[in-house]
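Protein: Helicase-associated domain-containing protein
Species: Streptomyces virens
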Amino acid sequence: MSTEEKPAAAPRSLAEALRGRDDVSLAALLRSRPDLITPVPTDLTQLATRAGTRASVVRALERLDRFAVQTAQALAVAADPATYTELLGLLAGDDGDPAVSAALPHALATLREQALVWGDDTRLRLVRTARELLSPSPQHPSPTGLGPTVREAAAGMSPGRIQEIVSAAGLPSTHDAVSAVAALTELFNDPARMSALLDRAPAESLEVLERLVWGPPYGQVTADPAPRLRWLLDRGLLLPTAPGTVVLPREVALRLRGGRAHRSPEPVPPPVEAAAAHRPQVVDATAAGQAYTALATVEELLKDWHEGGPAVLRAGGLSVRDLKRTAVALDVPEPVAAFWVELAYAAGLLASDGEAKERYAATPAYDEWREQPPAQRWARLASAWLAATRTAGLVGGRDAKDRTLSALGPGLDRSAAPEVRHRVLTLLAGLPEGAAPVTESVLARLSWERPPRGGRGGAGPGTAGGSAAEGGRGASAAAGDGGRGTVGGVRAGDGEEDLRSRLARWALSEAEMLGVTGRGALSAHGRALIGAPAPRKPEAETEPEGPGDKLPVHHRPTPPPAPLSPADRATAAATAARLLAPLLPEPLDHVLLQADLTAVAPGPLERPLADMLSVLADVESKGGATVYRFTPGSVRRALDAGQTAADLHAFLAAHSRTPVPQPLAYLIDDVARRHGHLRVGAASAYVRCDDDAVLNEILADKRAAGLGLRRLAPTVLAAQAGPAGLLEGLRAMGFAPAAESAEGDVLIARADAHRTPPRSAPEPVPDGPPVPDDTLLTAAIRAIRAGDLASTAPRKPGAGDGPDRGELPRTTSAETLATVQAAVLTGASLWIGYVNAEGAASQRVIAPVRVEGGFVTAYDHTADEVRTYPLHRITGVAELSDDES
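Structure follows.
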């Protein structure tokens, strides 16, 4: 074997190209395309095969940015293989484009990294599946708007007709059709001769070419074409593909386009522009106010469902009526109410109780959440929102079966939602501190980073059709896709806005409601929530304040950051909570009582005070200050809860910065004096009162007819209604009865908190296989390398070789034992077939160390460790060749 190094040969397949990569490059491939590692391939050949499957290639193409997709599309219409110079010409054109020249190496490196392109710069190859997906055909036009080559379009033409075209184009006749097509192709690829040919073309013929040049390249012609069309057909500038259909050959279109495959290459992502700038302190304060409102709204929602919320629909979710009631209770529009309901559900604070008559209620985690500091409670909500795949914006829409999507119901998961939310906030973090973005610029940037399906590449086909009309007859250029009206399928903007754009719009509005942003700009605690670096300093010292000042911000784009690990997410949430805590208002321990039976809370109240005040009074208005109103009903509610008049007087005196108004004191005393004067018990129900005059008044009242009352004694009335109905009826008549127990004690009526059993928050729906961590990548690459070594190691010819190198070696037990023992003595490595206890077969390369007791101990190159194998599980052995060059 020669020790002189041989130059590395060009790879002949994707598997060979992968075999030449180092571990870092393989790890980058598996990280960017995690579907390739599920399950771990046995060797690099299987990895290459899996990387070329249609599903995997489609998924990889969908995750490319616009210019990388345009690069792949250009390779699909280039020769196979193509050189780097040819690819650059297709993207930059004959005149060259410095931006394209600068961006192409990175785009090509991305395609190589993701195993969509292989080969060096002299032999670039697009993987076969990607070429099939992106190459033009009548059924699936290319997003470039290009048609077939001359050779492809002329495949069904007669040799005589081809010779006629060659002669009309001014070329000498050839001896066969193949050479004639080659001569015609050479003519169309020659800029000078092509220009001379077009200079002789009638103006009307050039007009036809202009309509077809940017695609779609197909058109309809009649049996008797007009002279301007006949001139083009005679010279091969239009070629027939089917009766009544012509196509503009790819070579002709490229000459007319100046060599460009795309009308508008987009090598540079559009910048995110700032619509307005605010002082960072204003942004943080506004976001903190929104964050506190978010906490109050979630608490109000779950307090409204304290005794059990709405029933669960049979198909799951909230009914439209219950969502409307919730929206009224929260004083928000229905879409906003759906967002708060879904947020509480995503945070694990709300769930169904799972009982026979299933309904929604707070979970035990809600009680723990309420006891946490406000900043930590907000961090839990914000983290749940950021990671949730359930999308509240879809509520009220229709699913694939035309069923209405309901809040908390099925069908709301969108796996792309977390990535879009995180990316939107990251783009906001790239603006100067305090800058709010132009929404359309954010959407344009996201569309460049992940082009919508069918609209990839921005080929810009334009109308591409027009008409080459001939009197009333002629040709109309159209795509070869059904109605022949578009190129590349559905284009963004042709119909409903694509999902990622809608997700981005919802992310911006939801971040504002949640307090992640303030006045549209990312807050300091919002920046910490996504783990973003410190903000950039604004370019100017003075920043205009107000939405009318347009500040276009042009900065070099950064690639999307990798998603945070669970540990990093927890750290980021804790940091966000720490930054938010000083911005939240401190809870107050007092209110301001007023003479009109109201109390004003000038800020958030401490929890015991707020809980007691919510029982004693009704909320009249909210805002910066909350106004509570005292009514006979609210005071009675407090008395029913076990408070006495003295307790209420003491409570108000202790927590009011103003003296207790006399009307409020009179109201409490008056309601307390009448409270419990009547007693209702269970007989079916009865009323007793020491004052028989009061009972006479009740009996005489016409409103009591429905209660079925009759006197049993001077101080006792029996009723046909139950205790609850009797209490309600007497209260409607203006009395203040109290319920009593069988022993005659007053029953304290406290609302029972309804809780679900312990529930975990809903798991986000993954967007494909999870990205492998470093530990898994290291183990997988080691296994792939070892399996590849076992399958490709040179072997000596002999009994161990099967007809196919993929088969396991087969030898008898005696041959196996003898070969292994010999390898122990010589220190040689062996190729073995092995079947484990589960019956899984594998190939391995081992270096035997010793053989005893029916076991062989060897260094396993596959696992990179010493292992022991039972001899009876080895299917066969083969010696490796001494020459591995």
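Remarks: The radius of gyration is 39 Å.
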